[in-house]
Amino acid sequence: MAARSEPAPIAVAVPSDVxxxxxxxxxxxxxxxxxxxFVFYPVFxxxxxxxxxxxxxxxxxxxxxxxxxxxxxxxxxxASYAAGHAAKVWGLPFELAVPFATLCSAxxxxxxxxxAIRRQGIYFAMITLALAQxxxxxxxxxPFTGGEDGIQAIPRxxxxxILDLSNDLVIYxxxxxxxxxxxLLIYRTIHSPFGQVLKAIRENEARAISLGYDTDRYKLVAFxxxxxxxxxxxxxxxxxxxxxxxxxxxxTMSGEVVLMALVGxxxxxFGPVLGAAVIxxxxxxxxxxxxxxxxxxxxxxxxxxxxxRRGIVGELAHLLKKPL
Amino acid sequence: MVEILGVPAPALFGQLLLGLINGAFYAxxxxxxxxxxxxxxIINFTHGAQYMMGAFTAWMLLNWFGIGYWxxxxxxxxxxxxxxxxxxxxxxKRLAGLDHLYGLLLTFGLALVIQGLYRNEFGSTGLPYxxxxxxxxxxxxxxxxxxxxxxxxxxxxxxxxxxxxLVIEKTRLxxxxxxxxxxxxxxxxxxxxxxxxxTLTYGxxxxxxxxxxxxxxxxxxxxxxxxxxxxxxxxxxxxxxGMGSILGSIVTGFGLGVIEGLTKVFWPQASATVIFVIMxxxxxxxxxxxxxxxx
Lengths: 324, 295
What we know:
The complex is a heterodimer of chains A (about 325) and B (about 300).
Chain A: H1 16-39, H2 42-64, H3 73-88, H4 94-116, H5 121-141, E1 151-152, E2 158-159, E3 163-164, H6 168-190, H7 193-203, H8 205-210, H9 215-241, E4 243-244, H10 251-264, H11 271-286, H12 292-307, H13 311-320
Chain B: E1 3-4, E2 7-8, H1 9-40, H2 47-65, H3 69-90, H4 100-122, E3 138-140, E4 145-147, H5 148-170, H6 172-182, H7 184-189, H8 194-216, H9 228-241, H10 246-266, H11 274-285
Antiparallel strand pairs in B: 1-2, 3-4
Helix pairs in contact in B: 1-5, 1-8, 1-9, 1-10, 2-3, 2-4, 2-8, 2-9, 3-8, 5-6, 9-10, 9-11
């Protein structure tokens, strides 16, 4: 595929003093997580965190491998149904239901990724979208998803049999820990030697192949990791909001996660988190206005692509001349 | 009653006809997508919304101005094509030289805006559009009942697809188009106005989608989301066929429609997913698509 020249502020070889800014950012983010539930409504912050993790997982692919997946709702929604089913029907506790959901999405990611990486660029986007739509129709008919109603009243239960998750503040700390864990895993991945190879594939796949890297394998591992983390986000979301529905697997959800990453900044570490916060706030704010949410989201897409391709964090990084 | 493989013949042929009609829409839409992609390097996500606009334009012409089906068949593609030209001139032009993915994102955003506006105006439920008087009724073929309108849709869409193919493959204009798809810089150096050709090509592709929309209006309900799910199926059709060949898109479109129709008879639950499954199989066996050239 063509080189993505403009929105890539991250240098390939990152000296450690440059990373200082990112580490400072992580400390700030952690501090923000500690204060947030006392300033904002905890359920709202949890929604932001679930979508932020989802957007970060999506960004791992588009930002660091250059693969635009337009079907990430498949992984988010599959995990959402898996966690809901495990917790409600099988009665599994949180600490088993969410890892089970993550595993389901990882397995699905392995299969979808295996199919989709056969094509590059624009075809990759269309294939992921089509595969996700196939899954949507499957879930629409499958008996365990509850069709249009979804799985409702999923019990939050007790973590390790002790911590009562029906308390919003208790479950908040669990969600914050899951988010931070996922975020740090992605951060570690993109700065690892593995991550450097991913960036090499993004910049010039043919050259990476000529250097002896089995790029398909790298892409598949990255795709599966991204799917698993999207699943972690989706499973957590289902238990927190006690609802798994068709919205989670619909293509509009795939579009939303693209928008979050785009607004925050594709290929930035913190962009998807900020993007998720912006989009979730916007949805809350516009919730009573019918289809204006869709229209405004569409307009943001158009505006971002035409005039704001670096996104908020990307622009900031450009101003500071530091990768963020 | 005659039965074929345990299915009553009228039911089988009825679904086959429905499959052909769906296939006609797949063919017209994937044809437009392929022509646009060839010259603009953009996958036009707005295509489904523009198909919907075609149907709505016909509905508005009839209900607000009393202009009937036959004029709509001409006016709706013209109107939607003009909005397409405006979109190309004002928005898509600015993406020249950027990664293809930005075109996808921009047109996706546009589709959201257009569908959202129509939903605000008309609500989400479908609006009926009557079959024109000349095409009501049907023929009894002995083995099945053939509604005139459905026969008309199959015939006219096949004619439009073949005419498009003839223009692109056999005329001077088409040769410019094919040359510009291969190497726009060189064609421009020969004194051909490539930017104008790009604009008109987008307008034409979009008009084709709107034409399909008008044809669809009397068969399906006219609703703001009628193109949203369809376009994803068409993407799968495009992946299966590959975008290298015009005739390939037409054959793939009709073929997949028929397969989908047959699936509806023999295994109804799988009819919504069969095209996606075929896409997965084609990706395994022939990743470049049935008619595609390996890149």
